[in-house]
């Protein structure tokens, strides 16, 4: 294990902003993409249902 | 605010929403054009930062101008411009609504994207701030002046280039004050004077351009 | 209420299309503009709308030149040219709404739907106009006739590209307009029966 | 409407199949991700030159790899769709593009975030960086073209042509940018400055890359399902599917 | 040479002759864009001559691209493109004729005008010569690649900017080699390698682009 | 010589316009494509030309699929759509010349002038098409029918925007084409008498 403590881990040797921003942004993109796709799929199904009722 | 003014504004925003890619392409055009220069000129950061104000403003000018070429063209081709001319409303009013919608959709995003590109040209922080202010004050003038060109060249073939020819010379003051503002702040001077001049340009354009545009539209539709 | 044209002449390029065209159109009147292809029918109609400037002559509305007081004239005018004036990306309903608002007339969705129903394209109400066929687009444009309160209608070949059923519907709408005291100026190459309190004809020769 | 809309593979059968495949790939992605993150933060030692900042490598490099690989895969699907008139292939190409663009953007941003502490600048016009930026433009062009054409069949074919032209151009662009940068003044920063990668780092990067791969497949399948639903919304099988949905 | 090839070439040249202003405007666009930079950047001759290759090439790229947006649009709108597709001739052939006509009318004048602008940027004599050669070898590639973009975006709204987005990234190699050639000769090196690469680009484009364009046209006319 | 359509279906957007349209057209035959606005007439015609790809089905010319041997088919085909295919900046004569050359048929100026005379616009022969009216433009486009040697004519609403005299001229040209052993496929909303050795009708329903 590299890290003396959790705070050292979060501090990242002074590069916290750069490292956590990189990983955070990646995580954000992944989560956003998945959520957006779920919403899109639900919307498509809802529209299809409306069309089916016509 | 007048009812017809809002209608036209809403209509144009709705159309832009239906064609979101149109909006995106103005932005990308700005982005791509400003990324072309380093490829032609070379990667030296010192050189790039010294030419940045000029290059960014020219890219903004071109993006604005090119997106303006079609400001009235679609309405002209499908006959809705005729209908607008026959509306019992002052045409100048409707013209300002169209130009405002265009600025919201094409001008504002460019203003917001500009600092990001400024970073690639190694511009310092305060110059970036001035860049945003200058664009915010100057782009309305670009839209308003561009509208005159777009109206004059309606229905003329090859109008894309013709607009450029008519409009770019009129853009020159905006370019000079705009690039001057950024350059001043890069050199540690105050950009105040340049910014005031930019605002004056926009105001003057707001007073005169819609009338000229309306007159040009009437001629083009004959 | 009266539309009067006095000695109109129209020059296009270097050709004099027509000269000294005069007429008076009263409430309930119908004016046919007839002539061969290229005789200047469309030009005359645009001139009556004020879109084109006459070389000589004037157009008067209720005694006043339409150049003097365009707003009153325009708020009484409905023009439909060769072009439909529809935005391809808006639906038929949205298009109708926009044009009603521009003309300062307030119409609700119910009324617009029934207008579309009258001309037989209610099915297309929520489709973007882009995907409609020639004739369907024309019908969306014509639906404005069911919504307007304008007195004077100027219609350039409204029957072109319409199928037989739609032509009949349109003709009966025109009849109704005239019997309500409206006026219509129309060009057409097709033979369609329209009844009016008084019918005039202007014949242009190429 | 019993005509065959799809000659080679029908969405009607692919839709549920894709639905079954998605969880598998999602699980694989999670497993690889956990392993990769463990190596990148717990096992990999501190770099003596770059300090902890180098840990960005564990997202940056896999993202950069993916950005390039996805473009090639996308073009291959597009070519297949064009050649065989198979719509499923075209849909796959369309489904991959946004994910590819996201990875390109991530490579750019994480690279910038790395560059600031290492080089002191957010951006330099280095060959590799520049070609990555151009790759982003190529993705955006593909997406913009497809989204501005309404007829799906036309959009598919136009997009496929563009992707093919792009794939011919990518190597040309890559080399031209490389020569551009080395023929004149040498770039002031040497990208090779990173130390010889230790085995652990390589393993970490590979695991993260695998995680991204699996994620890409899962997401592309999700998106292709959406596209199918949207395109076939008036067909019977979609209507049947939608009955169970609460609105 | 095929009869239909000559017909299309002749037709497009005749049309350009009837609309001489179109040709003129491409030139003026090139001229104006390249004159904007000194205004934005400042009149320092040393700076200007160092950025000249890049700026001139970017201006050529933009002028070519903008004039290309309408390469097929007019034919598409009036239905003569349909008729061309229904001609019993290979479409690739007709496409090359159109592109060649466009190059004669828009590319060649830019090539001939460029040294004049180079002078304004204080480029030395041999760099000017290299500039002309580079443009002569590179502009055909620009026309050919641009034709693909023009064909793909036919009938798509906002196509002017969309073409830019599609085509400019593909132009980058030409930009790099073209500007590189001039810069090399400015720095006293041989421009030979760059020029050969430019020629290679044009040849490759000549082989591949007409096919892609023809395919794109067929897709667009559906 | 035979045009055969087998089980054609056409999908536009997500709407199936028509399916299993089949017919055979022999030398001297006339095929009317009828239907309301938006029923897919124009789409069917474009599909027969090969401009549009059918969703299902094939079109055969003399026994061969038109995709297999497009050149033979195209050199026997003349198509006139909604659009006239004229360049605004060229004169009527120049336009005719260009389209004849593209179709690889050699015609001299005399012949073109007499074609323009037949359809009654010889007066406009040397005017740029830009300044012509709707109907005049249409007539320039139709003048190609007097110059072509193609066997198969596909005409989309050729009578629209024409005045009565021109309609008659055009109808008699069609009669002559059919009696010379040609074939014609036509859509129209107007009632015009055309005589042919055999007349068929395809009726599309929206
Ligand atoms: C915006 C900035 C950056 C971009 C767009 C970028 C782009 C890329 C790309 C496309 C690759 C994959 C290349 C390949 O595998 O052939 C890559 C790999 C890599 N990058 Fe970056 N990069 C950026 C900044 C940086 C910085 C600042 C560093 C370190 C100081 C860096 C270090 C690396 C390393 C070590 C690799 C792996 C090299 C290899 O596997 O061969 N990058 N980058
Ligand atoms: N912009 C213009 N410039 C010059 N001449 C024009 C212009 N527009 C029309 N013309 C000429 O005016 C004449 C009349 O045109 P107009 O469109 O009014 O005819 P029309 O009677 O409506 O014919 P159609 O029945 O074919 O629609 C035409 O012969 C045409 O040559
Ligand atoms: N590009 C397109 N995308 C989607 N749908 C389309 C497209 N073009 C046409 N359509 C649809 O196809 C249908 C048929 O169009 P088409 O032009 O073939 O009709 P038509 O029978 O010729 O009608 P008209 O008599 O009005 O000319 C229309 O309802 C229209 O909605
Ligand atoms: Mg007319
Ligand atoms: Mg039709």
Q: What is the distance, rounded to the nearest whole angstrom, between the alpha carbons of the first and last residues of chain D?
A: 26 Å
Given helix and strand content, the structural type of chain D is mainly alpha
Give the radius of gyration of chain A. Answer: 21 Å
The distinct ligands, each listed once, are: protoporphyrin IX containing FE, adenosine-5'-triphosphate, magnesium ion
Globally, the shape of chain D reads globular
Uncertain runs of chain A: none
How many H/I helical runs of chain D? 7
How many extended strands of chain D? 0
Radius of gyration of chain D, whole Å: 21 Å
State the low-pLDDT regions of chain D, or none: 1-8, 185-193
End-to-end separation of chain A: 63 Å
Give the helix level of chain A as a range of percent.
over 70%
Helix and strand arrangement:
The complex is a heterohexamer, with one copy of chain A (54 residues), two copies of chain B (222 residues), two copies of chain C (206 residues) and one copy of chain D (247 residues).
Chain A: H1 6-11, H2 16-53
Chain B: H1 3-18, H2 20-41, H3 45-68, H4 73-77, H5 80-85, H6 91-120, H7 125-152, H8 159-186, H9 192-221
Helix pairs in contact in B: 1-6, 2-3, 2-6, 3-6, 3-7, 3-8, 6-7, 6-9, 7-8, 7-9, 8-9
Chain C: E1 2-12, E2 15-26, E3 29-35, H1 41-49, E4 56-61, E5 64-65, H2 70-75, E6 77-80, H3 92-102, H4 109-118, H5 134-142, E7 152-156, H6 164-179, E8 183-187, E9 198-204
């Amino acid at each position: 294990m590299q890290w003396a403590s959790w705070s050292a881990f979060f501090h990242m040797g002074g590069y916290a902003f750069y490292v956590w921003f990189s990983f955070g942004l990646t995580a954000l993109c992944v989560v956003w993409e998945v959520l957006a796709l779920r919403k899109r799929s639900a919307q498509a199904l809802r529209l299809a249902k409306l069309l089916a009722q016509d | 605010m007048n009812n017809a003014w809002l209608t036209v504004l809403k209509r144009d925003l709705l159309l832009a929403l239906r064609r979101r890619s149109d909006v995106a392409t103005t932005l990308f055009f700005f982005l791509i054009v400003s990324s072309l220069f380093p490829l032609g000129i070379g990667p030296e950061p010192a050189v790039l930062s010294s030419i940045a104000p000029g290059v960014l403003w020219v890219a903004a000018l071109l993006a604005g101008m090119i997106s303006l070429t079609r400001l009235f063209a679609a309405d002209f081709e499908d006959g809705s411009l005729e209908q607008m001319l026959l509306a019992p409303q002052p045409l100048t009013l409707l013209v300002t609504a169209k130009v405002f919608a265009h600025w919201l959709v094409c001008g504002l995003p460019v203003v917001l994207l500009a600092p990001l590109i400024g970073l690639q040209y190694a511009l310092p922080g305060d110059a970036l701030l001035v860049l945003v202010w200058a664009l915010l004050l100057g782009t309305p003038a670009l839209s308003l002046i561009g509208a005159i060109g777009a109206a004059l060249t309606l229905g003329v073939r090859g109008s894309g280039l013709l607009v450029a020819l008519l409009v770019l010379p009129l853009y020159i003051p905006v370019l000079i004050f705009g690039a001057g503002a950024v350059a001043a702040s890069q050199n540690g001077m105050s950009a105040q004077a340049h910014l005031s001049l930019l605002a004056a340009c926009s105001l003057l354009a707001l007073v005169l351009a819609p009338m000229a545009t309306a007159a040009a539209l009437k001629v083009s539709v004959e | 209420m009266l539309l009067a044209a006095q000695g109109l002449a129209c020059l296009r390029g270097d050709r004099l299309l027509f000269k000294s065209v005069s007429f008076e159109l009263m409430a309930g009147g119908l004016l046919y503009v007839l002539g061969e292809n290229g005789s200047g029918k469309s030009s005359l109609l645009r001139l009556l709308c004020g879109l084109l400037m006459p070389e000589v002559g004037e157009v008067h509305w209720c005694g006043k030149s339409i150049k003097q007081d365009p707003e009153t004239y325009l708020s009484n005018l409905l023009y439909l040219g060769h072009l439909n004036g529809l935005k391809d990306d808006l639906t038929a309903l949205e298009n109708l709404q926009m044009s009603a608002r521009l003309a300062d007339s307030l119409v609700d969705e119910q009324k617009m739907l029934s207008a579309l129903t009258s001309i037989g394209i209610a099915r297309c109400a929520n489709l973007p106009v882009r995907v409609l066929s020639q004739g369907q687009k024309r019908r969306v444009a014509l639906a404005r006739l069911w919504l307007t309160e304008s007195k004077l209608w100027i219609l350039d070949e409204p029957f072109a590209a319409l199928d037989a059923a739609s032509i009949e519907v349109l003709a009966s709408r025109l009849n109704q307009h005239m019997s309500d005291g409206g006026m219509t100026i129309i060009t057409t190459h097709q033979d369609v029966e329209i009844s009016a309190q008084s019918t005039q004809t202007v014949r242009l020769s190429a | 409407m019993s005509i065959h809309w799809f000659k080679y593979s029908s969405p009607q059968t692919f839709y549920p199949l894709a639905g079954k495949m998605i969880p598998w790939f999602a699980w694989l992605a999670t497993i690889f991700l956990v392993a990769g993150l463990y190596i990148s933060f717990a096992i990999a030692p501190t770099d003596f030159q770059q300090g902890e900042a180098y840990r960005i490598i564990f997202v940056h490099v896999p993202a950069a790899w993916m950005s390039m690989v996805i473009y090639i895969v996308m073009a291959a699907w597009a070519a297949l769709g064009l050649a065989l008139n198979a719509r499923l292939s075209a849909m796959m190409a369309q489904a991959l593009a946004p994910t590819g663009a996201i990875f390109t953007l991530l490579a750019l941003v994480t690279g910038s975030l790395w560059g600031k502490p290492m080089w002191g600048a957010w951006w330099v016009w280095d060959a590799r960086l520049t070609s990555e930026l151009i790759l982003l433009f190529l993705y955006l062009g593909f997406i913009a073209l497809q989204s501005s054409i309404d007829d799906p069949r036309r959009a598919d074919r136009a997009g496929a042509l563009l992707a093919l032209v792009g794939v011919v151009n990518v190597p040309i662009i890559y080399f031209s940018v490389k020569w551009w940068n080395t023929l004149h003044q040498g770039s002031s920063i040497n990208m090779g400055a990173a130390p010889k990668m230790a085995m652990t780092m390589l393993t970490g990067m590979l695991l993260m890359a695998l995680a991204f791969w699996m994620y890409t497949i899962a997401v592309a399948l999700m998106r292709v399902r959406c596209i199918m639903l949207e395109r076939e919304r008036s067909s019977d099988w979609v209507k049947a599917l939608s009955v169970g949905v609460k609105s």
